[in-house]
Amino acid sequence: MAGLFDAFEIKNLQLKNRVMVSPMCQYMAEEDAVANDWHIVHYGSFALGGPALVMTEATAVEARGRISVHDLGIYDDRHMEPLRKLVEFNHRHGSKMGIQMAHAGRKAIVPEPIIAPSAIAFSDKYPEPLEMTKEHMQEVLRAYRQATKRALDVGFDVIEIHAAHGYLLHEFLSPVSNHRSDEYGLTREGRVRFVLEVMEQVIDVVAGKIPVTVRVSASEYDCQGYSLDDVVYYCKRMEEIGIDAIDVSSGGNLPVAPSSYPGYQLPFAEAIKQAVHVPVLAVGMLDDPQLAEHVIQSGKADMIVVGRGFLRDKHWAHTAALALGKQPQVPESYLRAYL
Ligand SMILES: Cc1cc2nc3c(=O)[nH]c(=O)nc-3n(C[C@H](O)[C@H](O)[C@H](O)COP(=O)(O)O)c2cc1C
Fold first, then answer.
1. What is the per-residue pLDDT across 184-197, written as a single tens digit (0 to 9) for each?
2. Which domains does the chain have, with CATH numbers?
3. Which residues, other chains included, contact 200 with Cβ-Cβ below 8 Å and sequence gap of 6+?
4. In the predicted model, is pLDDT for residue 103 greater than 90?
5. For ligand 1, atom 21: residue with the closest CA
6. CB under 8 Å to 302, separation ≥6 — which residues?
7. What is the distance in A from the centroid of ligand 1 to the CA of 263?
8. Is this prediction's pTM over 0.90?
């Protein structure tokens, strides 16, 4: 029976344990979307804290796809060197590094005109987006392709495609935000089409070198939204085209917040895990070490993704190892703290 601190593999990527730091926007980049000292210290300190994999915050593939003007980007060659420094630091200190590639769609608050599947604002506090033309779609596909080339060059170990939380790809998947009457809307086959096209671009460039994963929102918490059955269908289609793991989150496409409690998204991960063969990652208040261990041991999910727990305790994985009676794998300079 595998536990939280047993090694794991996603495709060809060896992971020293089953802990991943969740993507978390920092809004700390200057308006050029370039990583700075904040990002080096922030992500680097996670690496010292013991997780197998650290995921960047949502990193925009286009300037108009930033959630805010302070997001990280990977849409220009200038973004590469600081990201490379960050990846190299984390590699030297024992963690793999993933990039969450994102496009904010109608939830972007940026100077550029914003785009979405349909001209429907997220809420009355957000601007109305332009309905995407086929040309816009080609631009976005090219942007994902270019971003993937840069991510590979920088040395990231995983690309996670952000298709959750109400951003562009989620907007395509949902009947709430996708009112298109062409082949990219109308049915769930139509609504998943553009998302699969994006994934095909990324998978094509990656050519098997590193895993390509996806984050989905498994519930929209509204009867107008898609169903869990739709999400399972989407995940199966993604698996068929070569997605290597599924990170299961929820919400974000409607201004409603789920009630959250430990493991609140776990039933979604379990449902998806029963339907696919690729690894499933669970997230959402799983930072109680006993709960995290139980989720892995009971086979409900394959990896535990921790967000706020790592913000509170950058060494969460070491803390969890101690709580579970394991020897934490700390950097040598820290050993005296653990004798
Ligand atoms: C400060 C903050 C920023 C976040 N930014 C992102 C993000 O960039 N991409 C994403 O997929 N989720 C983002 N999330 C959601 C987290 O990745 C995670 O799914 C959520 O916090 C639930 O996990 P937790 O209970 O372990 O924090 C963010 C959450 C927080 C607290």
1. 999 999 999 999 99
2. 8-338 (3.20.20.70)
3. 241
4. yes
5. 307
6. 8, 18, 245, 273, 279, 280, 281, 296
7. 14
8. yes
